[in-house]
Design goal:
four-stranded mixed sheet, 45% helix
Length: 399
């Protein structure tokens, strides 16, 4: 579907709605809610989604289309829907709520994290709609409630001592508890390397394991991003390293965050810099010599990872293909269904333990914006060496 299509717009859907990916001529991608029956896009949803980036747009679009289908099924409209209607919808999606809920809506309830995102999406959508059109002022008032600031809220703000109240979401039950990350089983790396069948796949497993890259970052690497020799002229690191750059790629893969990057005399500088292990360098050269060399004449992209067999040989490898390869290799190795992000969780936990709990260093190396994410997610799994030594001493005295 082209971003310059001739579809009309409508503010109400028939219920036959779906999320449509739009590919623009300049390479951008966006998501709209499409009414299939009338061949038009949902204007209100489009105006709301247009203010977000591609990733948030995609997430909110799928939450929003589910809600719009529910409105159509219940013969409700945005102009008259109430806060109680929205709370009932959240309960039908999986939130806890006492009282009758009506006709079941979902086969499986959403998890707490997904419910929090849905609550945020709904509040934003209705605030945008009611403020833009001046409709349903009672709902706007209900969604604009505020709460008193806590000590933790004040600690998060640079001018926290001046904060007296914060916006609250009546559709949410607060921040969901952080789940324990799913780590790889012991010996998973060696088992996966033995299960994969090409040098390219061995490179993918090695790079995910040793660098903690996200799968989108790995599939979005170009050859110019790889500085795999010591003392590279970019001057960012002394040893081999990689620059992760957020760009629009033909395979749709992209880095999660885009840090400033420059191209100085053909040399990439900036972005998120990750150190490369000797095993990463070796697996890259093995891939280039064994797999990429055979398809280099038909390669259609400057991206490093490409398809190496079949009619798509030479085309860029997307994240979907890489995920499928990881999943199949995990099943062959007897490890079950392995997700690429499990490599990142395992890497971050091991690095946090090896650095003695230096969450700032782990956050810088892993590309997290704040060390608080590392502290809350991985530090407790890595353990405290001082505490463990003290416990060993106590247990020894009591035995």
């Amino acid at each position: 579907m082209s971003g310059t299509g001739t579809l009309g717009g409508s503010s109400r859907g028939s219920g036959d709605l779906r999320v449509q990916l739009v590919k623009h001529r300049d390479g951008r991608r966006s998501y709209v809610v499409l009414d299939v029956a009338s061949a038009s896009f949902h204007v209100r949803a489009d105006l709301f989604l247009a203010s977000f980036g591609e990733g948030t747009q995609r997430t909110y679009a799928y939450h929003l289309v589910d809600h719009l289908r529910w409105l159509a099924a219940g013969r409700l409209v945005e102009e008259t829907v109430t806060i109680e209607d929205l709370r009932r919808y959240m309960a039908l999606s999986g939130a806890e709520r006492a009282g009758p809920l009506g006709v079941p809506w979902r086969e499986r309830p959403l998890g707490e994290a997904a419910l929090a995102v849905r609550a945020t999406c709904l509040k934003g959508y209705y605030l945008d709609l009611t403020m833009r059109e001046g409709a349903n002022p009672s709902l706007r008032a209900e969604l604009s409630v505020r709460r008193l600031a806590s000590h933790r809220d004040r600690d998060r703000s640079a001018l926290g001592h001046l904060v007296t109240s914060l916006a609250s979401n009546p559709l949410s039950h607060g921040a969901p508890p952080r789940r324990h990350p799913r780590l790889l089983p012991d010996g998973a790396r060696d088992a996966m390397l033995a299960a994969v069948r090409t040098a390219r796949d061995r490179m993918i497993v090695t790079w995910l394991s040793d660098s903690g890259m996200r799968i989108g970052e790995l599939c979005g690497l170009s050859f110019c991003d790889l500085h795999l020799r010591a003392g590279h002229e970019c001057g960012e690191r002394r040893g081999p390293h990689v620059h992760i750059v957020k760009r629009r790629n033909p395979n749709g893969a992209s880095a999660k965050t885009g840090r400033p990057v420059k191209l100085v005399e053909g040399v990439v500088t900036g972005g998120t810099v990750r150190r490369a292990s000797p095993a990463m360098v070796d697996s890259y050269h093995e891939y280039v010599a064994e797999d990429y060399y055979r398809v280099r004449a038909v390669a259609q992209t400057d991206l490093v990872l490409v398809h190496v067999v079949g009619v798509t040989a030479g085309e860029a490898l997307g994240t979907h293909g890489a995920r499928q390869m990881i999943e199949r290799a995990g099943l062959r190795a007897g490890l079950g269904r392995i997700k690429p992000h499990a490599f990142r969780h395992t890497w971050a936990t091991a690095l946090t333990e090896a650095t003695g709990g230096n969450t700032k260093a782990v956050a810088d190396e892993g590309g997290w914006a704040s060390s608080k994410t590392v502290e809350e997610t991985y530090a407790h799994l890595a353990g405290d060496p001082t505490l463990e030594a003290a416990l060993e001493t106590i247990w020894g005295e009591n035995s």
